[in-house]
Specification:
CATH architecture of the largest domain: Up-down Bundle
Largest sheet: 6 strands, antiparallel
Distance between the termini: 9 Å
Structural class: alpha+beta
Shape: globular
CATH topology of the largest domain: de novo design (two linked rop proteins)
Number of helices: 23
Strand content: 5-15%
CATH class of the largest domain: Mainly Alpha
Number of domains: 3
Radius of gyration: 32 Å
Number of strands: 11
Strand order of the largest sheet: 1-6-2-3-4-5
Length: 581
Amino acid sequence: MPLDSELPSDGPAQALTRAARRLGLRYSRGHVREALSRQPQPASLLALTKVAASLGLRVKAVKTDIVTLGTLEAGMLPAILHFQQGAHSGFGLLEALSTPATSASPRFRLWDSQHGSRDVEQVRLVQGWSGVLVLLERGATGVPEQGFVWHRLSEKLLEDWRVRPQLLGAAASTGARLGWGGLLLVLLVLAVSAQPPGPRPFVALLALLCVVGLVASVIALDATHQDGPIPGCRAGGAVDCTSVLRSAWARPLGLPLSGLGTAGFATQLLLLCTTASGGGSGALWLVAASFLPSALVSASLLVLQTHMRRFCGLCLTVHGVNALGAATFLSGPWPEVSAVSIPSALLACLFFGVLLTAALAGPSHRSPPQASTHPPDSALSTLALHLQQPLLNLDGAALGPGLGAPQAPHELVLFVHPSCHACADLPDEVDRLAARHGERLRIHVALAPTRADNPGDDAACTALVAAGVAWGATGMLSLLREAKKDYGRLEKSAAPGSLLAMDSGRGAADLEQALPLAREHVRAALEFQRQHIQSLPALFLDGRRCEAPFPHIAQWLENPAMRQLLSSASMSPPSSRQASA
């Protein structure tokens, strides 16, 4: 299950950057993120400790308890805490400790990028904290970051600073409601007393330019809110709408430029509409003049896109509209306007505010919590985290064929699928683990279709499991390796069992006899997968979700002390385990 929404769920980059700044080091998040990306497991605790040392910090990662955590001295803070719930993990910064007069339990001041700094009760902290504490101390000077000031300014502009565009609706403040209401009242009074002239000859040209700009801006705005390819736009090469519209530069201060363009062109169109119903010449002049600053903004964005070496067809369309509109304003025979029409200017502000709010309205897109990628760096640490996982009602023999001694004291259940790219090396890992520790570990391989409504996938998985029932799990792993090379061939086959028999050079009769049991295995695996698994591959050791790498599992089984810890934690029989949905 995901981490509690009140607990930190940052990656190591955010926590480490914040800690480094608290200790007086000048590093940007981008610099730390880049250093982490060069590590084999960028999201792991091992990567965090290595990068912290390169920044000039002395690091000590320890496993402790909540009582010891509450006795830390102020000089030992800030420190980084690791949080773990199920398959999800995150990091947070412990900034301070305090003991309220009305409570004997300390309060922990935590920081993370989503919540900022706030106090957390001990009872809430212990629910998600894994027990891993990273103590930091400023040591030798690390390698300085080149261009820190520019990088930090870019982070503030593109990531940290956020404006509140909500001008109307439930999210608007009382001041905003009173302000827009007063503005509307003034406009109504001025509109009654105004004497608008007739339409102007260049209305058609300005309307055409605004319509073209509005269509391009709306398409670009939709593209920034959605994943996947952009209709009508290429990806890759110099003209790449995806890389331009979904870059950080397309959302300065958290506002999408395409949203500003949509609101701007729509405002111009609405002002033009007022001229048709008796609006003054000042409104028409304002519409034409507004293309001049828009053209300057377009020129700046073109310089930025040239620097990025990426251009967007939609953006170029908007830039062309702004340039042509500015040229029309500078060369057109516009009427003499002694002063900008106050009613038109106020009406433009009202239109722009309402349309900008409407353009940016929509569901917020929060990133899903990142799955754990084996944060600890030692077999003992991974074992400690593994033993904290909930114990599930899991019977490997009912989920798939197995290899290793049937009476082995430990059981590993592996959920895979032929189409899973991350499962490519698992058959070899399983073979090596079974060869070394088959007397201590029984390994069951479970297969289930990724979609229950795909009969081809269901038949292919059932055929592979039937092969494991008939010819052993080792033969099943061999066929699984081959199926991964061209799974579509097996999935689309009308008789996948016969195809597997032909590929393996075995008779199909044994496979047909194993089909009823194989179907039971697949149904059981599918049901368990629906309840407990979000992504593949998934490993469960002795009824607990296992995030440790295979070499660590091998060390658990080889080391007598670790093996004793593992055995004592898995002594409860399967019937006494609590299922967790």
